[in-house]
Each structure stands twice: as C-alpha cells, then as structure tokens.
Amino acid sequence: MASSVAVLSDIHGVLPALDAVLAEPDVLAADAVVLCGDLAAGPLPRQTLDRLVSLGDRAVWIRGNADRELVTLAGGGDTKIPDPIAPWAADQLRPDQVELLSGLPLSATLEIDGLGEVLFCHATPRDDEEVVLVDSPLTRWAEVLDGVTAETVTCGHTHMPFLRLADRRRIVNPGSVGMPYGTTGAHWARLGPGVELRSTAYDVETACRRLIETSEYPGIRDWADYFVRNPASDAEALRVFSPRARGTNAT
Q1: In total, how many domains does the chain have?
Q2: pLDDT tens, residue order, the chain (251 aa)
Q3: In which element (H, E) is residue 121 found?
Q4: Is 204 within 8 Å of 217 (Cβ atoms)?
Q5: pTM value?
Q6: Could you tell me the residue range of the domain that residue 126 belongs to?
Q7: CATH number of the domain encompassing residue 148
C-alpha cells in the first residue's frame, strides 16, 4: 500500500511546468507518481517523455486521448484533433516513444493509505475522451462510473482541478500541469492519507523563453503565449465542455 501518491495529468509536452512539479518535495518523496494521460502532445514531446521515463518504477502510466491520437498520427492515420501542434508532435517522437504510448492502459488502481482502492483514469474509467465536470449531475456520474467499485476515482482531461462527492464516491481531478484552465501555475494532486489539490508556481516568462528557445514547433511563440502565459479561464473552458458533458442520460 502506498502512503503518498502524486498525480500529474495533462502535461502536454510543457517540460518547464513538469520540471517545476517534479522538484516539489512531496513529489520527490511520493511512493508513486501517477501520470493520468495527455503527456506529450505539445511543444517538447520527446523531452517530456524522456523526463517521465527517468522516474522509473515510481511512474504509473495511463493513456489519454491525446496519447492515443499521437500514436495514430505517428502511424500515418488521421484523427479529429483540431490543434496543429498534435501532428507536429507525433512527427517528433522516436519509435520507442510511439511504442511506449501505444501500450498504455486505460486505467490503473492503487491501494493508498487512508483512501483504500483508488482508480485512476484520464477522462472516465470506460473512455479516454468523454467529459464529466464538477457540476455534472449525479445521473451522469452514475453512468460513467457504472461497475466501478473503488470509492475514490481520479481523472483529468478537462484541465480544471476539483474535488467532489458523487453518491458517496470521492472524485478527484488534479487539473493540468502544462495547460491549466482558470489560473496559471502547474496543477497536480497529492493523495494519502487524504486528498490535496496542489498548484506549483513557476516563472511563466522564463518558461515561455525556454519553450521558444528549445521547441522546434513553427508556431511556438503564439502557442506559449496562449497556453502558458495567458491560459483560458474556467468559464471559457466550461462553455466549451458543457455540451459534451451531457451524456446519454441527458434530457
């Protein structure tokens, strides 16, 4: 049983944000670092994956929709990703990195002190891209968690941190390390024996300069300005996500 687990999601190839989180004392001391998907689709995909691999056996890897789509793009397929950085990022990956992403599981479970069995996924336990939000109704949560026995479920995907109950089940979203919606900083969570939503402050201007200097993405200046320096608000994100969060039980 793990006594302390750090949960990192939606890094999106923003290595300066990742490095800031990995330097946190509570992350360094964690028994495991759970990576809840969407790891490399961004400006420094190779370097980000290499940094995560360096965590060794402490890392628990989970597939996000962007990871799956990078594999498809790297193999010459098409996806519905509208962001042009994704095809570019797929072309940057080495064959061993494509193989790594292609083998990631949809979910994982860990026993954590004080919490018992915790299920980790990217979007929901059954799908890597469907949307549930902090204000989704209990019927929607019951739908996406059908058959799940764990009392705590940790998911990412929407880039907005929250902690809520859904019919006695604890739902944790750590937010996004690399592309936060709502505020700047790198968001993550610490589990065991309770739940803490954490935010690591880092020098955004230095991070943007580092991305511009080291990423070969042609649109890196605009990308860094939009996603790192001036992230979308939670209100903007909710307007986009809410229509996708209604599910099959919506009326």
Answers
A1: 1
A2: 899 999 999 999 999 999 999 999 999 999 999 999 999 999 999 999 999 999 999 999 999 999 999 999 999 998 877 778 999 999 999 999 999 999 999 999 999 999 999 999 999 999 999 999 999 999 999 999 999 999 999 999 999 999 999 999 999 999 999 999 988 899 999 999 999 999 999 999 999 999 999 999 999 999 999 999 998 888 888 888 888 777 654 32
A3: strand 116-121
A4: no
A5: 0.94
A6: 5-245
A7: 3.60.21.10
